[in-house]
Amino acid sequence: MSSLFRASTLFVVVAALALALAGCNREEHHDRAKPIGETVPAGESPDTIFPGSSTPPPLDPRAALYDNNANAISKGQQLYLQMNCVGCHSHGGGGMGPPLMDDQWRYGGRIDQIATTIAEGRPNGMPSWRGKLTEDQIWDLAAYVRSLSGLPSKDAVSSRSEGMSAGTPQTLTPHAEPKNSDAPQQ
Amino acid sequence: MPGKNYAATRFSALAQINPANVSKLALEFTFSTATNKGFEAPPLVVNGTMYVITPFPNYLYALDLTKPGAPTKWVFKPKPAAASQGVACCDVVNRGAVYDNGRIFFNTLDGQTFAVDANSGQMAWSTQLGNIQRGETITMAPLVAAGKVLVGNSGGEMGVRGWIAALDEGSGKVAWKAYNTGPDKDVLIGSRFKPFYAMDQGKDLGVKSWPPDAWKIGGASVWGWLSYDPETHLVFYGTSNPGPWNPDQRPGDNKWSTGIFARDVNTGEAVWFYQSSPHDLFDHDDVNEIILADIPWGSGRRPVLFHPGRNGYFYVIDRRTGQVLSATPYGYINSSKGVDLKTGRLIPAPDKEPKAGRVTRDICPASPGAKDWNPAAFSPVTGLVYIPHLNLCQDEGNMEANYISGTPYVGADVKMYAGPGGNRGVFTAWDPINRRPVFEIKEDLPLWSPALATAGNLVFYGTMDGWFKAIDARNGKLLWQFKCGSGIIGQPISYRGPDGRQYIAVIAGVGGWAGAIVSAQMDPHDPTGALGFANAVKDLPMKTTAGGILYVFALPR
């Protein structure tokens, strides 16, 4: 057995270990975690004005359970097709509804704001899914929708698309730098 | 009316502007409509006033043509529900208003029909017909004939059940309403119904040609063009695609989708029906314009209709019986192998049939067809039909669509691109008698603008990057062009002004299904955007911007 082979084997092992370590957070499941709240948050926009106070409201604590989480993103990806989100927003490029893969968020790009948009609907035609999906599903969907814009890290998103999409996998969509208004604020 | 006359020829008898002087055509005035969505409606000129109906929010402007600069006389704002924008499949367009007997009639995106006094701008009546909670919108231009206002719904991508309704012109009350799916009594099929071909004969085909209950959400809406024959009192219209697009979910012929109905305007009774695409595979709606003409036939003449179909065939049909006299490709087709004139059936091309779980490639024409909604013009002077149309093919992969009311019901991933030759649009002058093109003009971008023909032997049309063109009706030679501020998908018109001069008018406002990538600010990275149209027009955002501006041209005094 040549030393070259041993060296390359070692490299593969080290690389796999590095990947596994990097992927620790992305695979966290919270199925048995403490119960989540009864309602989706009001989702205040951080890029608006809050009279009488100086700071925008903090990120909803549940965001950490879903944002950047491969399990949530993957479940949200399936729901995105099953609930016909794809019919209006396509695979992120938009159509009847606005695009989701660009860097503009009409109602805020924080995951709690996206969850609110899904739950409550928006006045120009976004339906309200409150009561049609569980809150866990709404958060999963929000995690996937946020991932379409390239905001979460690439190790959390799926390298293949559900369905027959002729588009590029999410691992290849450009990574978007969060704007001030999209950045999680503590 | 948008079609110019009941025969929908889009032919103006004005001849002051002609090939010899059109090069001097100059801008007279402009008007901003304060909208920036796809502008498909034509201006309407009646008694020295120009009426302009906009896309959502469907403003109706009245401009005074008797005064310099055509100042606004009044504006009527119907205030349609904002949420209706979320169930309009292909931009929030409106295809036109109609004048009759002192009133302007038009539809709003949220499913209402309005009658407004043409002088005062005061509302006479309004009738709610569509329900956005079920995905119904109204985008078509009504047709007023025999004291009835004829209106149909949009929403073939939302699982609606298609219908056409006739409202009493004076009161707005529903006189009759016919569904395009379901049992015969709902479709107003009775003893007078005599379809020409065996495939369209039988009881309750609107139920039997579907899986159980699928007809209730089966599409077959009426969002395109109506024509009317005053001699026979027949109104003609085409029905949209069946829903969902995924054909595996609806085995059967899916009556009465993707076909042409002839109905008695007074009672709504169906008289004949012809289905151009039984069990539609590709979203090949049959709503395109129906042009009425009498053509030489043997030793006499025969009343026919011309119909450049979305599936790529130019149909000549006997309008008394529904018999297809000829069906000739006017664009590139590989998705079918012709029309069997004995049975009336489209001859399928099995290798192009989309199946669940695989991607079918190189389907021509693509879902918007060899031609979509934008109507052709027919000049009785040259005897030619001027067809602005498309040269697009597509890849399609299907998956099961879930029906959730008020959301899309499609089940297809589509990616469109230019057809053979690389040009995405074609302007064809078609000889309907000899069944051949007389000339063709290749256009880089898809042609989404209708055509206008004049007795001055000119034909006008616009391109999606904003060029408004006049060509010689005899040979297609480009004689004049003007660059407008936004891409043109609107219907050009010609009218005689109060000063006796001939004017040409068009509204530039890119959008519609083809231009949604600009008007809806879509992200061109996703090839499936706008039901796959985005991939074919990725370059459009670099070539034009959204708008909604009226341009009026005339020869200098």
Q: Tally the helices of chain B: what do you get?
A: 4
Largest interface: A-B, 33 and 41 residues
**Architecture (CATH level 2) name of chain B:** 8 Propeller
Strand arrangement, major sheet of chain B: 1-32-33-34-35
CATH class of chain B: Mainly Beta
CATH topology of one domain in chain A: Cytochrome Bc1 Complex, Chain D, domain 2
Fourth-level CATH superfamily of chain B? Quinoprotein alcohol dehydrogenase-like superfamily
Helix content of chain B: under 10%
Q: Strand count, sense and closure of the main sheet of chain A?
A: none
Provide structural commentary.
- The complex is a heterodimer of chains A (186) and B (557).
- Chain A has six helices and no strands.
- Chain A is mainly α and 186 residues long.
- Chain A has a domain of 100 residues: Cytochrome c-like domain (Cytochrome Bc1 Complex, Chain D, domain 2), CATH 1.10.760.
- The model of chain A has no long low-confidence stretch (mean pLDDT 77).
- Chain B is mainly β and 557 residues long.
- Chain B has one domain: Quinoprotein alcohol dehydrogenase-like superfamily (Methanol Dehydrogenase, Chain A).
- Chain B contains four helices and 38 strands.
- At the A-B interface, helix 4 of A face strand 28 of B.
